[in-house]
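Incident log, structure service

09:12 report received: a user says their structure output differs between two submissions of the same chain.
09:20 pulled the input from the user's history:
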Amino acid sequence: MDDDQRIHPSKVADDRASLTSFLDYQRATLAMKCAGLTGEQLKQKAIPTSGLTLLGLVRHAASVERSWFRFIVNAEDVKTPWPGEVDGTFAEFHVEDADVGEAFGVWREECARARAVASSIDSLDDTVNFRGETISLRYVLTHMIEEYARHNGHADLLREAIDGAVGE
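09:34 re-ran on a clean worker, output below:
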């Protein structure tokens, strides 16, 4: 993880550019945490007390991107790419038989579609109504940054447990 290719957010950008660039930075951080690992390493439950895997986090990120940007904000009739539950947890976290290339492809596609949805909305303050709640684009972008930041903390621990690699 010594080759940091992430684009760091501007320290003087306007609100929209700040939020979208911080979200892209968090997306790139997850990719960086997974870089250079084999499929088996990406599927490894590296912490004995947790079922989390790096590949599960990637699949979860794809589902969350799809849910917030396409289903909620853009009102598309889309379903999660990995539906259902296994043992009380979302199926996306069960990666034993998962296809690594498919997971990363779906995630990259959902990120691209999310960017397109966000850029198609005029203002951060524009809202959608979803299940009785009013939700702004500003909220969705902020929530997604928080979602990635939290899971990137998990990814830090997983990566270090897998091969000792540490980094921001």
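09:41 both user submissions now match this output. Likely a transient worker issue. Closing.
09:42 reviewer note: The longest helix spans residues 137-163. The mean pLDDT is 94.
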